[in-house]
Design goal:
mainly beta, 38% strand, 4-stranded antiparallel β-sheet
Length: 550
């Protein structure tokens, strides 16, 4: 067998003849560096030049037009200005086909994307809000909000003063929206952040500096779900209505929001592949449905069982959890259960998981269960909520519709209460390929969250997690079980009060005990966490507290 020396450690490595011209990893455990093998004639492979970029199509003066639903009827040639008018009135769809010679047909969006772009004056240059009329003054920039501390302005100076008292050394900056955000998602590969509001607003920012890039509008519904393609420069918005769910496609480069389909029933879980080509969802039947996004087509559908679901970003696995804590791993290619996760004879957790999450490679699954204990329930009349919150050392408050405050407290020496917390609080990492437990956090979680956890977030690189109390977020290294420190804490009265008033009970992990932090995601490379507090119009950019190995 031919042999070659590793350029890093010098070890001689033998390889079979059919490995000529390929790259292998050094078998030395301490090395593992890539080794380029020569060709059979002894020469080294030459890297092939990348193909030249495909030139963007240039707009033409006139086009022939035909509908995608009736390709036999051809109209034209029509002036480009006329097609722009039809697109503005939504009489020209992006799936319709156009041609300059009547023979070579392409989708209108691909042949001439500018046909669907609105005038620049329709977007406010300050905040990016989509305006109804071309010369309409922006209502966000011209409105004087009565509550200065809550609303603020969109300048850098106001954002800095708003957080001056938080004393969080990890907080670096904020991404500001013109309205309260219901949810957001980070497209890490595209260095973009997409935020959504239940009232029908969708916005796009550049993650590196928070620069607003684009906004869209859609018909509001009961609830909105948002997923992004990590590297595909597009997002999917699922808007639930009374008996159906509308699916919209937002492509980062285009101003038009396209309605892909209207599905019967509601959606329990949603995942878009990193390249944006496939959408996998679990409906309320529950059934798994797999779709091709463009052109829209259902590829597969089969029934599943469970009460809470999470879909792998790779698109090959589904985690289904039950009320008793059991978690099954489904293989979406075969439509069958592949593993039943557990520790010995015990299920994966002691109750329905607060959250499950896959790593970006789909090889690891994260599960977390927990409770928020309620030991003292008392009504305080005439007491400032934030003062009472600080005085009693309670990690969060909930204000109901009658403005009665419910404050949770705990006796540190209550053995029965601690036993309950230890029983229900689990943070675990599983191998998807083997269906086995890999890592687990112990009692240290309860020490950082003395009243329990209400949610958890999985670091997408597979070795860290964030546990959420009602108003705190704490980072952990799963491989060692060590605390990485506090990531975020609600630290001023306005933020606590606003978050408590805007908690969505349908999204709460446990009814009556939700976390006041709505969503946590990560930027490219995982160096910063993005934190959205309930009721806020700002996404906080927080530096990850410590380097963690993948």
């Amino acid at each position: 067998m031919p042999a070659i020396n590793c350029p890093a450690c010098g070890r001689e490595v033998s390889f079979p003849d059919y490995f000529y011209g390929t790259v292998i990893a050094c078998p030395t455990p301490a090395c593992g560096k890539p080794i380029q093998l020569p060709n059979a004639d002894g020469s080294m492979p030459v890297a092939q030049a990348a193909p030249p970029p495909i030139p963007k199509p240039q707009p033409a003066d006139k086009y022939y037009l035909r509908r995608h639903s009736d390709r036999d009827m051809v109209v034209g040639p029509l002036p480009r200005a006329k097609l722009r008018q039809l697109a503005a009135k939504e009489q020209l769809q992006w799936t319709d086909e156009i041609s300059t010679d009547g023979r070579n047909w392409q989708q209108a969006r691909k042949r001439d994307p500018g046909l669907f772009q609105a005038e620049e004056t329709r977007n406010c240059p300050a905040c990016g809000l989509l305006l109804k009329e071309a010369h309409q003054p922006c209502p966000n920039c011209s409105r004087q909000d009565a509550d200065e501390e809550e609303a603020g302005t969109y300048g850098v100076s106001k954002v800095a003063s708003l957080h001056a008292g938080q004393r969080n050394p990890l907080l670096e900056r904020s991404i500001v929206a013109p309205c309260r955000l219901s949810d957001f998602a980070s497209a890490r590969g595209a260095d973009a952040v997409v935020g959504v509001n239940d009232d029908g607003w969708l916005g796009l920012w550049r993650a590196s500096d928070g620069q607003g890039l684009r906004t869209w509008e859609f018909e509001p519904g009961r609830r909105v779900r948002l997923v992004v393609a990590d590297q595909g420069n597009l997002a999917i918005v699922a808007v639930e209505h009374k008996r159906s769910t509308r699916i919209y496609l937002a492509e980062f480069e285009y101003r038009k929001l396209n309605e892909l389909a209207e599905l019967n029933g509601h959606v329990k879980a949603l995942m878009l592949s990193p390249d944006g080509e496939r959408l996998t969802l679990v409906d309320d039947a529950p059934d798994v449905r797999i779709y091709r996004v463009n052109p829209w087509k259902r590829l597969d559908r089969f029934p599943v069982r469970g009460h809470r679901f999470e879909i792998s970003p790779v698109g090959d696995r589904l985690a289904a959890a039950y009320d008793n804590g059991a978690v099954n791993l489904w293989n979406l290619r075969t439509g069958k259960v592949e593993f039943e996760l557990g520790t010995g004879r015990e299920p994966a957790g002691q109750c329905l998981p607060l959250r499950m999450g896959f790593s970006r490679t789909g090889k690891r699954l994260f599960t977390a269960t927990g409770i928020i204990v309620r030991f003292v329930e008392k009504q305080f009349d005439g007491v400032d909520p934030f003062s009472a919150w600080l005085l009693l050392g309670i990690p969060g408050i909930i204000i109901n519709n009658n403005a009665k405050m419910i404050l949770d407290a705990i006796r540190p020496n209550d053995a029965e209460l601690r036993r309950r917390l230890e029983h229900y609080t689990t943070v675990r990492l599983w191998s998807v390929e083997k269906g086995r437990l890999v890592d687990e956090l112990g009692d240290a979680v309860i020490q950082k969250h003395p009243t329990g956890i209400a949610d958890a977030v999985f670091w997408p690189w597979g070795s860290a997690a964030i546990t959420l109390g009602q108003g705190t977020a704490h980072a952990w290294d799963l491989s060692t079980g060590n605390s990485l420190g506090q990531l975020y804490q609600l630290a001023n009265e306005a933020e606590v009060r606003r978050a408590a008033e805007h908690v969505d009970p349908d999204r709460a992990a446990l009814k009556g005990h939700p976390t006041l932090i709505r969503r946590i995601d990560f930027t490219k490379g995982g160096k910063h966490a993005l934190v959205l507090v309930c009721g806020s119009r700002e996404i906080q950019v927080v530096r990850w507290p410590q380097e963690t190995a993948e």
